[in-house]
Amino acid sequence: MLHANSYTELWSKTVSPKTAWMPNTACFTFTWLCCAMYTIIIRDMLRSLLLAIGMAEAWTSKESVCAMMVLLLLPLCLLRSLSSLAYTSFFGMLGCLYTTGFAIYRHVKGDYAKGGRFFQLLALERRPKFGDEINISKLLVLISYFHGCYQVHFDAPKFFHSLSPSTLRRFNVLTYSSFTIAGLVGAGLMIAGFLTFGEHSESLLLNNYHSNDQLATWARLATLVSILCSYPLFFGGFASGIIELTADILRSSDRQTVKDVLAFVMVAVNVSLAFVLERLGIIASLRCGARGTDQAS
After folding, report:
1. What is the predicted pLDDT for the residue at 144?
2. Strand partners of residue 129
3. What's 19's DSSP letter?
4. DSSP label at 129?
5. Cα angle at 244 between 173 and 263, to 5 degrees?
């Protein structure tokens, strides 16, 4: 054991002090892209929920939704401790399970298949479409997405030290069990979604389901809660990466101030991106590509 307390220290001891900036740069780039991706998901979920409950057009406009996101995300990023999210994170996990179960249920019932309950309500570009050809470009994007599924390396030291006792054996049990469950849940959602909508499956699958589908409304709410609970974790990884890179010029008393400033900057930048970008896939591809570049280096 090298008894390193950070990726910078570990890299300095095992590779070279001259390139010790690389892992933290990769971590804060990746976590920023994750937060940007989550911001777009929150935008879509908020708008769909507002439409589902019959809110006026003024409340469902892009400007109104982005203003709501600032009010939601900024307090989460300014939290001094994440202990208050312990119970809400549990509900976020239940939300993921519900969303996967919902997608499987709708596929088995055939509610979105031709002749199904919601088929005629869908716009033509959202109706299920299946072909017999393999689209190589989309296959490569899918493989890129797979690469980003288990990228939580930036928080691995935090998870390890939070265990009591913090042994490698306990950490392995935590990692293998959680990754297995996450993989099964994610695969179930992906397979059920594709078997339901085929080539017209959106990057954010819940966008495919009609606003009149009440079970989909609950799935959107569950996804929104899950994403909101995860957002501060990724922001923490982003802020920690930048603070560690600038540790030589920062006094310990300045770190919280820098983190607060970063919270304002990140929320402003990501909400602006959510205002401009329409589709989630662009950010998701950049996220996976950024992490792949990091691992290649």
Report:
1. 62
2. 198
3. G
4. B
5. 90
Backbone angles phi, psi at 202, to 5 degrees: -80, 160
Whole-prediction pTM value?
0.77
Structure tokens at 56: 């006026």
Please check whether residue 208 is in contact with residue 200, taking contact to mean a CB–CB distance below 8 angstroms: yes
Q: Are 29 and 55 in contact (CB under 8 A)?
A: no
Check residue 293 and give its pLDDT: 44
In a 13 Å sphere around the CA of 269, the CA atoms on its Cβ side amount to 13
Q: What is the dihedral of CA 90, 93, 99, 101, to 10 degrees?
A: -100
Closest C-alpha among 203, 206, 228 to residue 217: 206
Phi, psi of 136 (to 5 degrees): -65, -40
> Mean pLDDT of successive 10-residue segments in the chain (297 residues)?
65 75 78 85 87 77 87 89 70 86 94 92 87 69 63 70 81 86 87 90 86 91 86 85 75 77 91 79 54 45
The alpha carbons of the chain give a radius of gyration, in whole angstroms, of: 21
Distance CA 242, CA 25 (A): 8
Residue 185 in tokens: 């849940």
